[in-house]
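Support request, please re-run this one:
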Amino acid sequence: MEMSMEQTNKKFLYRMLYVLAAVVTLFPVSCDYIMIGGIITEWISRMEEIAIGGLRLFPTAEAFVNVGIWDNAMNSNLWFFFPALLYRFSGNLVLAYRIYILALQVVTALCSFLFFRRVLTCKEPGKENEMAICLGVILYMTCPYRIFVCYDWANLSEATAWMLLPLYGWAVVGLLQKKKSWVDILVAASALAGIGYAEVIYFLSLVGITLLIVLFSRKLFPLLPLTVGVVLAFPGLYRLFSYLFFGDFSEGEIMIHTIMQEGYRFGQFFSSYAFRDGHPGFGLGIMICLLAGLWLRFVIGGEKVGTYERFFIGLAILLLMFSLRYFPWDFVQRLGVWTLKLVSVMGTPAVFAGLGYAALCVPAAGAAGRIGRYENRLVAGAVPLIILITSIGLCVYQCNMLTDTRAPLRF
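Re-run finished. Output below.
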């Protein structure tokens, strides 16, 4: 009876923490206005064009010319149809913005829960990873780069891709396990296509990551949803391919330029409360998790790191290398005219840092789960609590700083 009551209390606590992880990311939405900053005016220009001109898959060049922002020139409007229709019928753009962000954060929390529950579940008795799953969701939701994308940079196309990333990961992990499900195939293909319509650079990155998964796992099954996803996403990728290989979209002002100088310096990975040049670090929560994992592995000689965690560690290191200002993107651009254009479309290598931070959430949460099972109960209880407080606290700090310093946007 006591054990059942304890399990019930734990489940209730974890549910409350999941809700908390979503709530703290919604603080900027509590404002009854849209904040000035980032590229939010580009999103507003798209909304007005769709609301007035009808449902068009791609925005016109005028939508970018009006605001002088070309960051998402190759990304489609598909995910913005709903808020645009809401704006058209309500006449309230702030309402459309708040509802879209609310839905985005809630769905992100649900998708991340599904992903971490599948990737971190232990089959061995006595090694339940409920704590690791919960902290994984919190680390992903409060990741400083994701909060930067959602509110500071206000790139809602990329924020939408962050919503779908864990859903795609959930489906691919399911395909790598023994039981193959058509649900996993359909979800993986749909999520990948959805990312393609939201953010083409993330789509291409995931195609490369999926091929790495096939190479290292020696399982060809993930290639099926990858192929279907590419076919489904082709209308959303049409503008990019036309620009790269046929010289279309010549009216655009996507300047051909080098991106190396926009990359991270090594020390910027470890920034927490303040960062410059749009380069947030991976945050105190992930940092404490990784340090705790290293301590357990090399000092205490604890449990071995799981297969999925090892893969995501290697993937994160690779992606973070791509994001450095020292990575030779200039040489990549010299491979051909299409690579010159493609690298310029990326805009900044920081996009790979964001993907790297997302990948780090898996080994970080796994390390938190292992230290939660450590024989010293004081350490086992204190470290996860510190991780929780620092992750939530840093997110609240970021959101409050934005709401305190950003004025309302007048339009």
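The radius of gyration is 21 Å. The chain has a mean pLDDT of 91.
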